[in-house]
Write the C-alpha cells for this entry.
Amino acid sequence: MTLTVEPAAQLREQMRGVVITPTDAAYEEARQLYNGMIDKRPRLIARCLDVADVQAALTCGRDQGMLLAIRGGGHNGPGLGSCDDGLVIDLSLMKSVRVDPASRTVRVDAGCTSGDVDHATHAFGLAVPFGIVSTTGVAGLTLGGGTGYLTRKYGLTIDNLLEADIVLADGRFVTASQSEHPDLFWALRGGGGNFGVVTSFLFQAHPMDTVYAGPIFWEATHAQAVMRAYRDFLPSAPEELGAFVGLKTVPSMDPFPTDYWGRRACAIVGSYNGPVEEGASVMGRLLESLPPPIFNWMGAMPFPAIQALFDPFFPKGLQWYWKGDFVKSLPDEAIDVHIAQAADAPSELSLMHLYPIDGAVHRVPKDATAWTTRDATWSMVIAGIDAHPEQADRLKTWGRRYWNAIHPFNLAGAYVNFMMDDEVQGRIQASYGENYQRLASVKATYDPQNLFRVNQNILPAAA
Ligand SMILES: Cc1cc2nc3c(=O)[nH]c(=O)nc-3n(C[C@H](O)[C@H](O)[C@H](O)COP(=O)(O)OP(=O)(O)OC[C@H]3O[C@@H](n4cnc5c(N)ncnc54)[C@H](O)[C@@H]3O)c2cc1C
C-alpha cells in the first residue's frame, strides 16, 4: 500500500526529523554542498534525527527505487553526499558527542564535524585523530581513512575506530566491531559509504592539550631547499610531530605581511603533539639548515586551535577541484616537477600538500583494514580552489596538468577522499590494491544490489 502514497508525505508521517522537497523554502539551502562546483538537485532530503528516521528514509528510498545518497558533513570533493533526482539521507542534525573520560573513548553521532568532536574532547584533555579543517564531516572522513596532525603518532582515524552503528541495505541495524560483524568492521575502515548508513562511531581518544603548532612560510625561491630538508628530516623526527609540506600562496589579507601578499610560497604546517619546549627544539633542528622564512607562526596553542587554523580561509561554497596520489618517495626530480607546476597555480587559494603516512600507520598490517596503502610515505593532494565559478575550468585544467606531470613519480592509487569522480577506470581498484576483492565480497554480503552507489563505488563481487 505504501507505494501508492507520495514518498514525501509517507516519510513525513514516519520521521521525527525534517523532510525537504524542491518546493520547500528550505530546499536551496539544504541542497548546497561544501564544494560550490557541485550543483545537485535531489528529489527528497531526509534530515534524520535518530536511527529510526534513518531506517524509515532508507526503506522509503529503496522501496520507491530512488537513488540514495548519504550526507555526513557534505564536504566531499565530488559531492558524493548528494545526488540528482534521488533521496539524500542527511545526518547533519545528529550531533551528539559523549566522552567517557575513564575509558578515553568518544561516542560520536554521524552528523558531527571534527570541530564538534574537538570541542567536546578538549574539555577532557583528549583528542581523536581527524583532519586539518574542523568543518569536515567525521563520517565521510572516517569511512575513507582519515589523516591529520595526529596520524604519525596515533594512526589514521580508522585506526582509532572501535565500533560503528550502521543501518544496512535491508534496513537492519547492527553494530560492527572486532567482535561483531568483523568483516563489515574491516570494510568500513577505508571502504567509504559502500556498506550502509553509519549512525554513530565509537573512537579511542588520546591525551592532548596544548601543542606547539602553526604555519611557517618561505619564499618560493627556497621551495627546493625546504622540500628536500622536510623529506630528509621526517623519518627521524619524533612521531609527536605531525607536519605537512605544501606549495601555496601568501594570502592577500591581514595578518600576512603585505610585501608578500599574493606571492607563491612553500610552507610547513605542523603540530608538535607533546611538550611545547620539546616541539620548539625539534623544529629548531629542522630550521637551522634552512634560510629564514617569511614568517614562523609556530607557537603554543590549544589543540582545537590548530585543527581549525584553516577554517577562515575555506568557507563553504568555494570552487574545488581535487586530485590525489599516494607517494612512496620524493626524489629531487619530483620536487622540481612540483615546484614548476605549482608556480602556475590559477588562484591564491590553490595548493599542493603532502601529508605524512608513516609512524603508527606503518605498524598496522596492510590487510588489517580495507585501507591498504600503508607502505606509502605521503598522501598528496592537489587542489585548485577559487571563489569564482567562472574559474572552474581553469582550476580543472591546472589540477589535471599538474597531476599528469607528477603522477609518474607516485603510486598507482590515491586516498579515496582526495578524488573527484572523473578518475580513470581502475583507480578505485588501484587505491584498494590487494584488498579490493575482499571489499567486493563484503559488499556482496551486505549490499548485493549496490543500493549504496553514490560513493567511490565498490562493485559487489559476482555470486
Ligand atoms: C577543506 C577540506 C579539508 C579536508 N581535509 C582533510 C584532512 O585533513 N584529512 C582527511 O582525511 N580528509 C580531508 N578532507 C577530505 C574529507 O575526508 C572528505 O571530503 C570526506 O568525504 C568528507 O566527509 P563528509 O562527511 O563531510 O562528506 P559527505 O559529502 O557528507 O560524504 C562523503 C562520502 O561519505 C559517505 N558518507 C557520509 N556520511 C556517511 C555515513 N554516515 N554513513 C555512510 N556513508 C557516509 C557519503 O556517501 C559520501 O560518499 C578534507 C576535505 C575538505 C573539503
The chain has a mean pLDDT of 97. The two ends are 32 Å apart (CA to CA). The longest strand covers residues 210-219.
